[in-house]
Amino acid sequence: MSRIKQMIAFDVGSRSVRAVWVGLRGGRPAVTRAEAFSLPMDEDDPHKLIGAWVHKLGLAKQFCAVALPGSQTVFQSGRIMHNDPRSPEQVAAMDIAQFNEMAGDEMAHDVFAFDTPFEMGVRRYIMSMARPASIQEIIQATRRNHLRPADLIAAPVALYNAMETLAGQHDEPYCYVSIGHAQTEVAVGVNNGLLFARSLAAGGKLFTDAVAQATGLPAVQAEVRKHVDCGLRETDGCWEPLRAAADRWISQYNACMGVYRSQFQDRRFSVARIVITGGGAQLKGLKEYLAAKLSLPVAHVSELPGVNADYKPFIGVYDMAFGLAISAMEQGKTTLSLLPGDLKDEVVFREKKPWWIAAAVFLAGTMALYSATGVYLLKRDGALLDAERDQLRRREQIDKRIQEFRAIQAITTTNAQPLTSLLINGPLAREVMTLVAQTVDPEDWITLFCDEKIYNPKEQDVAAKADTPQAAVRNPFSLFRTLRPAAATPAAADKKEPPPRKDLVDPLSAVFIAEGYTSNPSLKSVREMIERLKTSPDIVRVDLRSDDQVLAPTGIPELEGEKLPNFRRFVIEIEVKRP
User: Fold this and answer.
1) What is the pLDDT at residue 321?
2) Average pLDDT over every residue of 259-281
């Protein structure tokens, strides 16, 4: 997808919806507007509320970047040696084939490759995959919110791109954690690219439930009090149940990072710092408690060196939406898009539409200019046209005489055609017949020699002969063909149309038929005859068209006492060169 200069991103969570408008200022992405909308906890169908809010913002049917939850995305990391001739797409195609076989579905995927600062001769790649059903579900949900997807980014990828934009330069891997209400997105990466991404099925709801159990308050009121006077410090309210909930969250985080350490066992890939963001990260004392439990420096996103004064009002709240926007604008460090190809084409069309309109307007103006110029030239050439009309009339008379001469020539050629055909047909048939007579075995004999058109008459010729009472029955498997005449057909009740008039002399084709008989059952003499014919330079092709065993006729009293020899009938097809 081509780079764009501004983008709207929607981060739809289980408790709130956040929208940001991001544009480029001095080549760097900047948030120009941000809106948030809280969702009630007991709402069964939040799409109606979100759709009404979208209409209120004036964003109905607008294109926006949306997130695919990390729980519905699979990430695969790997290495490519520099001497490996395969591209990252080819390596990913091999991996995706294995995942498709295991998943039993055609996974949608994208791949991104990069160089790490502490590995020489090796390129790292990360591939994001998702089931088409999960992608269609997010796309349908976006349309139910009266929006159009401009890009579909996995939530951990958006988190990484947002944090890396603010983290500044660092060589060691950082772990970025976004604690949402129902789940936590985890991304580990360096400056050049994303190394690892996962999603935890635990979020700020753990702490809300702990406060609700400790105070007996409803979930809505517990959510409010959690951010008022509760925390993990010993001076805060409900610190003991909150620490127990934090321990459960830490256990899931450690399990996730255990997978990371198993894939990246080199010490150079050890996480040097943890950066937390999201609504759950606002809990008092959480940063210090995580640092003590995990034995790693933990910082809030607001402490990153890349946070400027323009972004401070949005820090910690709109980070995921900001990451979605810069990922769709291809301003992030890692580009991984799971949007289907047809929707990408629609986005490109919408993006280029103003330019196409301008081009159409320019083309219309150009055509108008050409039309005006044509009218002027037409008037200028009118006088010349009148002068040339007299010459055209004289030329028409000359052309008329030429056409008359051509008609006379055509008549002469037509009248000469029969003579030409006779001059060609006779010598050609005579030469081929002589050649057949010279090559036939003395023990064999030829009973029929004709042109292929005569041997295979056209349908109208057969119909014409059928009306003749003396037409003989022709049986290709019988030796005696004209001994018994066929019965005359009764006159038809209605008059048939006369057959079409044939030419005086039909030109011979280049194929002749020679039919004969041999007493050799193996047709050896016939094949030798064919080989001798092939040696002639005038012969193009000789084939044995058919051969039949000749049987004694039945139903003829005159021949019942005769003993016929055992011989076979053969038909040879001979193609010659036309003169």
Assistant:
1) 92
2) 91
CB 214 within 8 A of CB 206: no
Q: Which of 203, 261, 279 minimizes the C-alpha distance to 38?
A: 279
Please give the torsion angle defined by the CA atoms of residues 392, 394, 396 and 399, in that order, rounded to the nearest 10 degrees: -130
Q: Which residue has the higher pLDDT, 123 or 494?
A: 123
Paired strand residues for 111: 127
481 bridge partner residues: none
Triad 467, 469, 473: Cα angle to 5°? 90
Residue 457 backbone phi and psi in degrees, to 5: -65, 155
Rounded Cα gap, residues 411 and 413, in angstroms: 5
∠ Cα 363 369 374 (to 5°) = 125
What class does CATH assign to 6-339? alpha beta
Which uninterrupted H or E stretch holds 308?
A: none
What would the mean pLDDT of 223-252 be, rounded to a whole number?
Answer: 88
Contact status, residue 280 vs residue 203, Cβ threshold 8 Å: yes
Whole-number Å distance between alpha carbons of 25 and 333: 18
The helix/strand/coil state of 126 is: strand
The CA distance from 237 to 222, in Å, is 12
**In the block, residue with structure tokens 């009248």:** 415
> H or E stretch including 137?
helix 132-144
For 129-171, how does the pLDDT look when each residue is reduced to its tens digit (9 = 90+)?
998 899 999 999 999 999 988 889 999 999 999 999 999 888 8
On the question of pLDDT at 499 being above 70, the answer is no
Q: Are strands 273-277 and 174-179 parallel, antiparallel or unpaired?
A: parallel
Statement: residue 482 has pLDDT above 50: no
In Å, what is the CA distance from 38 to each residue of 4, 11, 315, 389? 29, 12, 18, 84
Q: Distances in Å between the alpha carbon of 512 and those of 418, 419, 445, 447, 543? A: 20, 21, 17, 14, 11
Q: What are the structural domain ranges in the chain? A: 6-339, 426-488+496-576
The order of strands in the sheet holding 194-200 is 194-200, 184-189, 174-179, 273-277, 298-300
How far apart are alpha carbons 444 and 381 in whole angstroms? 82
pLDDT(380) > 50: yes
Contacts 24+ apart (CB under 8 A), 295-301: 296/271, 296/272, 297/272, 297/273, 298/273, 298/274, 299/273, 299/274, 299/275, 300/275, 300/276, 301/163, 301/166, 301/275, 301/276, 301/277
Predicted confidence band at 496 (pLDDT cuts at 50, 70, 90)? low
Q: What is the pLDDT of residues 283-302, one digit of tens each?
A: 888 999 999 999 999 999 99
Q: What is the pTM of this model?
A: 0.61
Instruction: Name the pairing type of β-strands 539-549 and 298-300.
Output: unpaired
